[in-house]
Amino acid sequence: MIMKSVESIAVIGAGSWGTALAMVLADNGHDVRLWGHKPEQIDEINTHHTNQKYLPDITLPKNIIGHVSLGEAIEDAEVLVLAVPTKAIREVVNKIAVIRKDPMTIVHVSKGIEPNSLMRISEMIEEETPSHLLKSVVVLSGPSHAEEVSLRQPTTVTVSSKELEEAERIQDLFINQHFRVYTNPDIIGVEIGGALKNIIALAAGITDGLGYGDNAKAALITRGLAEIARLGVKMGASPLTFSGLTGIGDLIVTCTSVHSRNWRAGNLLGKGQNLQEVLDNMGMVVEGVRTTKAAHQLAEKYQVTMPITDVLYSVLFENVSAKDAVELLMARGKTHEMEDLTNLLGGQ
Ligand SMILES: NC(=O)c1ccc[n+]([C@@H]2O[C@H](COP(=O)([O-])OP(=O)(O)OC[C@H]3O[C@@H](n4cnc5c(N)ncnc54)[C@H](O)[C@@H]3O)[C@@H](O)[C@H]2O)c1
Ligand SMILES: O=P(O)(O)OC[C@H](O)CO
């Protein structure tokens, strides 16, 4: 057993991922305050040590204390783990910045890009937090379904920050025998991989919903990785990151699992439901929808070819049918598989 110093940590967002990560931190002996904005849910956490809507039949460790008061939750907590959907990041960080008096480290665990501003989450946090309050921003990402983490099944993730020591400190807070944490200095690659895999997972759900098989799934994962890496590298990421946990790792786990909300939403779209029906029925965040909009804009901005993102955009926002979208992808002009290799061969 690794001996750790005990810290007070506030987890902001009591949905699936915030609750599962609170469990990891509580298992490591930390004093965990779990903040949520729904009083009945916080009452359930404190009274029954459960969070049935998000993690059915899981008993939470007793050292997780639920809070509805944000002030109480973050008081004395030097590390804040932000676990709300990308859409809520600015609102929540703003509320924290108003209350907070002392510098803090913010660990974000969300996977998205903001449409229009085209900002990564760490950039949004930096923009919304006065610099005297922000010690550093760390991202925790990788192939990790809350459902499996809450069952203490083996899971690996990566933490990244502009300050390596801060990433290592957060690695120490989370790591245990079920939850292995690596570091990677490439924060752009880690955030881009985590956000854009949701687009490919929606597409993988669609092909499954249409009744296509493993060949289509493998094609989406590998060609999806190619377009994510193509954009990421243009944005300043290391190409190596995309062959790691937050690249191919997260693509595999999200495109092949019924736990994935993005895959499940895509599956329903492939079976013929419309987007609004699907989102109304999910009851949890499906990040890939907004991220498709953002990635479509990023592809335009960086002049990068992203065919899967483009056809998914047309399905989600331009009423193109899922079946037609697959046909459009398959009928594209012929091309080389490896762009770098093509350059090496003198552009043949
Ligand atoms: N669930 C997973 O397995 C998992 C794993 C890795 C990363 N993530 C990422 O974590 C982030 C959160 O996902 P989740 O699975 O916990 O989502 P979720 O839908 O299960 O829970 C989201 C929580 O945020 C709360 N919330 C929403 N808007 C809010 C607001 N304006 N103010 C305060 N609280 C608000 C909701 O009430 C809910 O408690 C997403 O970006 C997701 O991609 C999820
Ligand atoms: O349920 P999803 O589709 O939001 O995916 C959950 C995690 O991001 C998988 O790593």
From TrEMBL:
Pathway participation: Membrane lipid metabolism; glycerophospholipid metabolism
PROSITE patterns for the chain: NAD_G3PDH
Domain Glycerol-3-phosphate dehydrogenase NAD-dependent N-terminal as annotated: residue spans: 8-165
Enzyme class, first EC level, given as a word: oxidoreductase
Superkingdom of origin: Bacteria
Residue stretches making up the Glycerol-3-phosphate dehydrogenase NAD-dependent C-terminal domain: 186-327
Binding-site residues for sn-glycerol 3-phosphate, renumbered to this chain: 111, 142, 144, 197, 250, 260-262
Pfam families hit by this protein: NAD_Gly3P_dh_C (PF07479), NAD_Gly3P_dh_N (PF01210)
Keywords, sorted A to Z: Cytoplasm, Lipid biosynthesis, Lipid metabolism, NAD, NADP, Nucleotide-binding, Oxidoreductase, Phospholipid biosynthesis, Phospholipid metabolism
GO MF: glycerol-3-phosphate dehydrogenase [NAD(P)+] activity
Positions contributing to NADPH binding: 16-17, 37-38, 54, 111, 146, 261, 285, 287
Residue numbers annotated as active site: 197
Catalytic function, reaction form: sn-glycerol 3-phosphate + NADP(+) = dihydroxyacetone phosphate + NADPH + H(+); sn-glycerol 3-phosphate + NAD(+) = dihydroxyacetone phosphate + NADH + H(+)
TM annotation in the entry: none
Catalytic activity, EC: 1.1.1.94
Subcellular location: Cytoplasm
Protein family: Belongs to the NAD-dependent glycerol-3-phosphate dehydrogenase family.
Protein task: Catalyzes the reduction of the glycolytic intermediate dihydroxyacetone phosphate (DHAP) to sn-glycerol 3-phosphate (G3P), the key precursor for phospholipid synthesis.
HAMAP family xref list: NAD_Glyc3P_dehydrog
Protein name in the entry: Glycerol-3-phosphate dehydrogenase [NAD(P)+]
